[in-house]
Design brief:
376 residues, D-Amino Acid Oxidase, Chain A, domain 2, 2 domains, eight-stranded mixed beta sheet, 11 helices, 27% strand, globular, binds flavin-adenine dinucleotide
């Protein structure tokens, strides 16, 4: 079988694979993205597309702030604004006893030198979200945060990739990996791809791809659920979440309410399927109507789940393989990887092209999850 040759082969056509490919192609690399189904088939097409720095693990704050700066000029990067609006994200306290946690978080983040998270009182909260139930007492807000349109984002990254010369191959799942001199050979049915560098952006299947190269990475899986309602008149602009409840609540440009927050269905990695758990989902609907009583009688239009990888510490895996030359991992975003898409691609291109990056990524090293696996 003759192999199709590239400088870099990216496995996985979700947003992280596309972002890595785009940044690499713009640095002159010949790149192929190999996707088992179609671009955006899994987490990137199922996402709520919240663009959030609020409440990030402190290890993620530097890259999340850089990503946010990129979101604010996303049209200059991918030729479309991706439906991104910066109306802020809120973490709401329903009761006074929830405020100390939010205050501690603000103090901690400020002590580290960041100013993007700010405590607001009930009056300011009501000004930002008039439809909120009057029992809420305050919130933590990141005013530059917001949300985007996931499908416009996928399309914009895909089109930019193609314009930069990236070859996108769909319907092609990598099954075996071989080494020939300085190259990796990636086989998928009758096709074979050859490249000295490989980016593993296989999302929930990231550990399976890593294992083909000899990297044993401990990885869990999640199946977050979402609800979308019928269209309503404008109700709220920011994205709202609540202390102590699994709720994320926002309104799309089309007027639908998009309700999520991490409630879990079940995932089946072998069948590439996930299933809604309606008992759990009802908790999200109940939380939404407790916080926004005006939506109590709104009709639900659709619900879904999406499969995504989850690490033990909920931090992504971003970095070079410690033993497979030319292999770079970017997966395991644990339910909050959409916001990091623009910056993670830039990091991957640094790693592939220069062998290092100026960004702080030590906390995301694959090794931390390999040691854990070896110890288990
Ligand atoms: C319901 C839901 C809501 C979310 N909400 C938010 C949010 O509000 N804000 C936020 O920041 N993040 C959110 N996330 C997380 C975010 O969407 C993900 O972190 C991000 O989309 C992950 O992108 P990815 O490219 O790593 O993975 P994916 O999009 O899953 O892409 C991986 C791709 O690899 C392919 N693949 C797998 N194995 C192979 C193989 N052997 N050969 C070839 N291809 C292969 C798969 O088919 C898949 O298309 C949410 C996720 C879900 C599911």
């Amino acid at each position: 079988m003759s192999a199709e040759g590239f400088d870099v082969a990216v496995i996985g056509g979700g947003l992280h694979g596309l972002s890595a490919a785009l940044h690499l192609a713009r640095r002159g690399r010949r790149v192929v993205v190999i996707e088992r189904r179609w671009t955006g088939r899994h987490a990137s097409g199922a996402t709520a597309a919240g663009v959030r720095t609020l409440g990030r693990d402190v290890a993620e704050i530097p890259i999340s702030l850089e990503a946010m700066e990129m979101w604010h000029r996303i049209a200059s990067i991918v030729g479309d604004d991706c439906g991104f609006h910066a109306h802020g994200q809120l973490r709401i306290a329903e009761r006074e006893e929830h405020m100390p946690d939010l205050l501690r978080r603000e103090t901690r983040v400020r002590a580290l030198g960041y100013a993007h998270e700010e405590i607001i009182d009930a009056v300011e909260l009501r000004r930002l979200v008039p439809a909120l139930s009057p029992h809420c007492v305050g919130a933590l807000v990141a005013r530059n945060d917001g949300a985007a349109d996931p499908h416009r984002t996928i399309l914009a990254f895909r089109r930019s990739c193609e314009a930069a010369g990236v070859v996108i191959v769909e319907g092609c799942g990598i099954e075996t990996v071989d080494r020939e001199r300085a190259d990796w050979l990636l086989a998928c049915g009758a096709r074979c791809f050859r490249a000295p560098a490989v980016v593993n952006a296989a999302g929930a299947w990231g550990a399976r791809i890593a294992a083909l190269f000899g990297d044993g990475i401990a990885l869990g899986v999640r199946a977050s659920m979402m609800i979308v309602t019928e269209r309503l008149a404008p109700l709220l602009a920011p994205v709202a979440s609540v202390v102590g409840r699994a709720l994320s609540f926002k309104q799309s440009d089309q007027g639908t309410l998009v309700i999520g927050g991490g409630l879990q269905g079940t995932a089946d990695l072998d069948r590439e399927r996930s299933t809604v758990n309606f008992t759990e989902l009802a908790k999200g609907a109940r939380a939404a109507s407790d916080l926004f009583p005006v939506v109590r009688d709104v009709r639900l239009a659709r619900c879904w789940t999406g499969i995504e990888a989850q690490t033990r510490d909920h931090l992504p895996v971003i970095g070079a393989s410690p033993q497979a030359p030319g292999l770079f991992h970017v997966f395991g975003f644990s339910g909050h990887g959409f916001q990091l898409v623009p910056v993670a691609g830039a990091i991957l291109s640094d790693l592939v092209v220069e062998g290092s990056t100026r960004r702080e990524i030590a906390a995301f090293s694959p090794q931390r999850l390999m040691q854990e696996r070896a110890a288990a």
